[in-house]
Specification:
Oligomer: single chain
Distance between the termini: 49 Å
Shape: globular
Strand order of the largest sheet: 6-7-8-3-9-10
Number of strands: 12
Structural class: alpha/beta
Order of helices and strands: EEEHEEHEHHHHEHEHEEHHEE
Number of helices: 10
Length: about 270
């Protein structure tokens, strides 16, 4: 890999003194033109890893770098121009339309009080179309479904025209079609524009279809970092998720998993 876009190395995060670290000596890298998915059970440390990488929580040890610079050396407006972020949970603070929300993605370029130029308007239009929310542009965001609101937030990140995307559970509340379309969209941006994409996802099968690498996190530690077929190993997954699984290879070469039924106890109901 060339110089990585994102790099976390030896990262340790403690939210309170005396508690076990939420992130413990964790590290991974994401290069340009690459999709990497952070996967693992609830509470494993995935979102903490994202927050550490973006400089939102202090490191007790280790380092976090973006485009070769320590994250602490970036001004927030600089970082917003370089990295588009879609957080896991967000509620609109005041009445605003879909288009107005996506326009906010241009603030890192023009500031809050300057009028948008034609290039900015074009960027907003492209983002609305790519996230399949152009037909909603005049709707108040408070009237949207959860899935529609999620796609609007992705459009806002795309309007930044960033060099990298960070998405924390981006397909939450999305139906099957829009879940797949969102991953296809990210894959296309990575392929065509050379973006780096770091995605947190509970959907292991979808992540395995699109990500070049899976970074499996458990107990605040990175327990595997490799191509999906080497990470999605039944014994490892059963140990991490606490449930037996089977793994199957599809005709296109990707691997998929499915949970197995636990054997019924003697005399029990299957």
């Amino acid at each position: 890999m060339d110089s990585p876009v994102f790099e976390l190395s030896g990262a340790t995060v403690r939210y309170a003194r005396g508690l076990a670290p939420s992130l413990d000596d964790a590290g991974f890298r994401v290069g340009a033109g690459e999709i990497v998915a952070l996967v693992g059970p609830n509470g494993a440390g995935k979102t903490t890893a994202l927050r550490a990488l973006l400089g939102l929580v202090p490191l007790a040890a280790g380092r976090a770098e973006i485009l070769g610079r320590p994250v602490q050396a970036w001004r927030r407006d600089e970082l917003a121009r370089a990295v588009g972020v879609v957080v896991q949970r967000e509620e609109p603070a005041f009445p605003v339309t879909v288009e107005e929300t996506v326009v906010m993605g241009r603030y890192a370029h023009v500031g809050r009080w300057r009028a948008l130029g034609s290039a900015d308007r074009d960027a907003v239009g492209r983002a609305l179309a790519r996230a399949d929310v152009a037909a909603l542009r005049d709707r108040w965001v408070q009237t949207l479904s959860g899935g529609e609101w999620q796609r609007v937030r992705v459009a806002r990140a795309l309007a930044q025209e960033p060099r990298a995307l960070v998405l924390d559970e981006p397909t939450a509340s999305l139906d099957l079609r829009h879940e797949m379309e969102l991953f296809e969209l990210v894959a296309g941006l990575v392929r065509e524009q050379g973006l780096a994409a770091l995605i947190v996802s509970h959907h292991l099968n979808v992540a395995a279809r699109f990500a070049r690498r899976l970074v499996l996190v458990h107990g605040g530690r990175v327990v595997a970092d490799d191509v999906p077929e080497r990470v999605l190993e039944p014994g490892r997954l059963a140990a991490v998720f606490g449930w037996p699984v089977a793994v199957q290879r599809l005709p296109d070469g990707t691997v998929q998993l499915y949970p197995e039924r636990r054997p019924a106890p003697p005399g029990g109901v299957p």
